[in-house]
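Appendix B: complex inputs.
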Amino acid sequence: MSYRYALVGNPNCGKTTLFNAVTGSNQYVGNWPGVTVEKKEGKITHDNMNAYIVDLPGIYSLSPYSSEEIVTRNYIIDEKPDLIINIVDATNLERNLYLSMQLAELGIPMVIALNMIDMVEKRGDNIDLAMLSSMLGIKIVPISASKGTGIHKLLHTAMHEALHGDEKTAEKHIDRHLNMCAPPDIYTGKVKEAIGLIEGIIKDNCIKKDLPLRWSAVKLIDGDPPTLESLNLSDTQLSCVEAIVSELETGEIDREMVIADQKYKFICSVTEKAVKRRREAGFLTVSDKIDRIVTHRIFAIPLFLILMAAIFYITFGALGANLTLLVDGLINDDFAGFVRNFLVSKNASDWAVGLVCDGIIGGVGAVLSFFPQILLLFFFLSILEDSGYMSRAAFIMDRALHTIGLSGKSFVPMLMGFGCSVPAIMATRTLENEKDRRLTMMLIPFMSCSAKMPVYSLFISAFFPQARGLVVISLYLLGFVVAVASAFILQKTVLKGGHAPFVMELPPYRLPTAKTLGRHLYDKIKDFMTKAGTVLLGASIIIWFCQYFNFSLQHVENSSESILGVIGTFIAPVFKPLGFGDWKSSVAMLTGLVARESIVTTMGILHGGEGETISAAIASVYSPAAAYSIMVFALLFIPCSAAVTTLRKEMNSRKWTLIALGYQALIAWIITFIIYNIARVIL
Amino acid sequence: MIKTVDKLAPGEKGVVKALGSFGAVRRHIIDMGITPGAVIIMRKTAPMGDPIEINVRGYELSIRKSEAQAISVEVSK
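Resulting structure:
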């Protein structure tokens, strides 16, 4: 048989790094249906034994405060893993151990993986592991997830504990949750007595409902609604419990604080003995010194703007543009030319040459050439994410976002939206309240994602080659302004509600390692190549096919009579007021719903293929105002199918997904209409 | 001297005495380690005047002034 381990820890404590280090190449990522928050499962083999490890969302506590806390808590209570691997950040011991103390009350065997132990040593502090372990009553293995040290020992200890737990249960025939793992002796005085009394009152309910006893008793003191509900206490039991709890409240410490206060006091008493600190708490670390400038009252905002400007300048400026030209030349001239000559020399039929060169290479290649640029943008966003700068951006911007009904925490997913809407929408999980999450998810698609870059590049090189920077900036700003204005409108109308809270940790800066950056980029390359090989390739073939044949599958000379031509002509009137009422761009907009890059692919197939570049071909078709209008519409319209699917899953509501999509479609049309009419006058 | 956290000057230190009531975030603030006896060091105010950054239990935490107002600390001279 194989065991199931749950990996639990605070956000940003190195959990995912450990997960990757432990599962290595065996990793398989699976989604559980029906939950809004994703759990990852990986398989590990150690000492010829198999185990499954489940990576749960990072949380600070098991209170039902955020959706991630609820998922983790429900997973552990309902699914009962064989063992909890609690990863603890050794540089932030007190707050991390607070979660450990909650986990220890769940009655499940547990091992602490004490991460970043190397940082503690570097700092000159010393942790007496043996003492810490015996005082907490939990096995501790020091590790460094990023360097991969201590992992073997951790797995060994985990396996041992899981086995041990099994034997105990089997030998004694006892209920695992009530007796197997004695919770640590945390509480003192009146609280300890009260817990004992409450445990006596609710014991039978716990056995019946298969709930951990100590956990349930403690949660009743907290006044935790889900526990109260699941225990199903009688009125007599309830009034007894309430009477005991009311005895505990003193002037300073109310019911909500009793347990947390005792846990933190216990932790402090432990760390005082087991940890020798070289410097007193609150000394300025390197990270704090960096923050003196980065979050400085005056410098912070200019610094943020310079940083963003630099990222976009490098991505869209000389470096990015030249990379694109280079790849474009390789694919669309050298490679396409080679293939065309090869096919012609082998006497391939016209349609085969057309399909391969114009359809596949022309379509996919048009997008592929922008890949280096996209990768560059992702590289910078990964650095921002990995270094810890994102939470500083949230800190700096909270005040401004507060006025439009959001919190600084929404700013992080919005910035990530510049890369890709899919991870950005998933990142809204860190927002506590449902209203803020929905609102932020609705705004993210307005942030210009990297897949929209090829569209801009194509039209800019055809129409605005001298004003490249200006046009790019105007589009990114437009997306941002529409997002902000939408937040303001939506929270005054459909998404009313109280103000979004803002309680956020500012994690220490970390130098992004080559390994994690490499992993991010590798994932992106893999994603993109898969997309190019499946969605874009498929779309290219279908589009080529539909513009080559008509409905009776006969080749048409004039592609406006083709299948695509007929469909495009049918929907074109919708886009007519926006300045691009021809069937080709109408079809391109439709294919943009599959993937934004498809707009370029479609344009490539429909306008290319006559030996000239796509830019040259479209330059003669549209007016500059219409070209700008196309870019604006591509920016604001309903996002690609991947983003819509994610939106649907994360919104967890058909109604709200439809509201979001309807809103995006409407806003896109109205704004493009206004901008086109202004552009017509100016350009 | 008793002060509320939003009134602390940068670098000033205080020991948490009591938490007032401020809605659903209270539970989270308690979980984050702001309980009686915890030492809070004021770091700074954000560029636009809100939120603030404090050091509590050895890590940096950002909260809004509206929440900081409800946390009273004993400042020793």
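Residues 2-74 of chain B form a domain with the SH3 type barrels. fold (CATH 2.30.30.90).
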